[in-house]
Design a protein that fits this description.
By secondary structure, the chain is of the alpha/beta class. It is built from 20 helices and ten strands. Among the domains are: about 170 residues, Spore Coat Polysaccharide Biosynthesis Protein SpsA, Chain A; about 80 residues, Tetratricopeptide repeat domain (Serine Threonine Protein Phosphatase 5, Tetratricopeptide repeat). The strands form two sheets. It has an eight-stranded mixed sheet, with helices on both faces. A two-stranded antiparallel ribbon has the order 9-10.
Length: about 450
């Protein structure tokens, strides 16, 4: 098998702490390393050149696509591998790597984004990072730059495919100060993009995402959610003016639908959330993010006082939701539209199946489902919350209270656990503890409907 050549491309600025790790992780796989330096004042260049990289100075103009395309312009290999300077590639055997490059049907590959500070709730669980070196394939957008649109266009003309791979890219983003700086930079560039491209739906979508905090795919009602929702709604409205055929080409649209639906649920707008998710069903039937949010909406409706009534009506809703979750869990990892991330395909569905079982009063079934979820991830806070709800349903308040505490210990962003625990403490007349928990809710989740209403009870 003749070896295909590969170039690593990355852009950097003051990345002396991590760029060596990024380059070293792929040295056994690539033939050249291209680094575009956008103005480093530290030892980034020296370290990169020490690993044999070709370093090119490119002025920073608040445009990530311009910088990435400048790197692509220098590539001499048949394939391109893209990393950020604070990422590294998990070990992969060179022979397996070359096998991917020799697939005649492949235009490029999506790599899993994993660990090291990447939020587990991220919808972008896989991204195109390995692709053929073709002049027509270039990045678009000044921020949250995307290669997929041009790669899709070229691949379609050539009858090639963009495939999933088992390779994983790990982010090293544990520096809170750097995260804050990057967020401020991203928002600055996005504000500029909103002015330059007023008709473009992608930028308000990305601006909305910048203002969200998430836990396992669920938007949290923290400060700034209302402002983020304004941008998400603006993006949704712009997309709504597009032809249905064009809507289907927007690979990020399912994520917009999931984000806006989950945001609406977080602020108690269940009716609007239901309308959004039904529209997404029309555009992307069977997409995992759409299915999960559809079930989340149904669970919210069934939990809410004044929601669907009658055993038959509720039974039909539960049955439909259960069918959709089981369909998602059966779908192979390579199914088009299905993220590689097993949390989306297996862990999250178990959580919702457990909630549905509990809504039907099937406590034993629910416990089994939540325990199965915890067997996949012992730190999954929604699994512990589910067990707390099961104990509470069964009348074991003391155990439920311990499990609420375990839930917020695993992840203090689980607002439902804080509020449900606070409610149970009030019922058990532990007023001081309830007051303490309620103060946490007000502090951490100021845009929760219960906080806005000033009523320390769950909604």
């Amino acid at each position: 098998m003749k070896r295909n050549t590969v170039s690593l491309c990355l852009i950097a600025r003051d990345e002396e702490a991590t760029i060596g790790m990024a380059i070293k992780s792929v040295l056994a796989l690539v033939d050249e390393v291209i680094v575009v330096d956008t103005g480093s004042l530290d030892n980034t260049r020296i370290i990169a050149e020490g690993y044999g990289a070709k370093v090119f100075d490119v002025p920073w103009e608040d445009d990530f696509s311009a910088a990435r395309n400048a790197a692509l312009d220098q590539v001499t290999s048949q394939w391109v591998l893209v990393l950020d300077a604070d990422e590294f590639l998990e070990p992969v055997r060179p022979v397996e790597f070359q096998r991917l490059l020799h697939d005649p049907a492949a235009a490029g590959y999506r790599l899993r984004m994993a660990g090291g500070g990447v939020a587990r709730d991220s919808s972008l669980t896989s991204r195109v990072r390995l692709f053929r070196n073709v002049r027509e394939v270039r990045y678009r957008y000044p921020i949250h730059e995307r290669l997929a649109p041009s790669l899709n266009e070229w691949a379609s003309r050539e009858n090639l495919l963009i495939l999933d791979s088992d390779m994983a890219v790990v982010h090293d983003r544990n520096d809170s100060a750097r995260r804050t700086t990057r967020r401020e930079r991203n928002q600055r560039i996005l504000r500029k993009a909103l002015e330059l491209y007023p008709g473009e739906s992608y930028f308000p979508y990305r601006m909305g995402c910048e203002g969200l905090s998430l836990l396992d795919g669920e938007v949290l009602p923290v400060a700034g959610l209302g402002a983020a929702l304004v941008h998400l709604r603006a993006a949704w409205e712009k997309v709504g003016h597009l032809d249905p055929a064009e809507q289907k080409t927007l690979t990020w649209l399912p994520d917009l639908g999931a984000k806006i639906t989950s945001s609406l649920l977080a602020v108690g707008e269940i009716g609007e959330a239901a309308l959004k998710v039904e529209k997404m069903r029309e555009i992307f039937p069977g997409h995992p993010l759409v299915l999960l949010q559809a079930v989340a909406v149904e669970c919210a409706r069934l939990r809410t006082p004044g929601g669907p009534r009658g055993k038959t009506v509720r039974g039909k809703i539960v049955a439909r939701a259960r069918r959709e979750l089981k369909y998602l869990m059966r779908a192979p990892a390579g199914t088009p539209g299905t993220p590689v991330d097993s949390r989306v395909r297996k862990l999250y569905p178990l959580r919702y199946l457990g909630e549905l079982a509990l809504l039907e009063g099937k406590v034993t079934d629910a416990v089994g489902l939540f325990e199965k979820a915890l067997s996949l991830d012992p730190n999954y806070s929604c699994g512990w919350l589910g067990l707390a709800e099961c104990s509470r349903f069964a009348g074991d308040s003391k155990r439920a209270l311990k499990l609420y505490l375990r839930t917020v210990t695993e992840n203090d962003g689980n607002h439902r656990a804080w509020i449900r625990g606070c409610d149970l403490m009030n019922q058990m007349e532990f007023q001081d503890n309830a007051s303490s928990w309620w103060c946490k809710v007000v502090e951490k989740f100021p845009e929760h409907p219960a906080v806005l209403a000033g009523v320390p009870v769950p909604l």
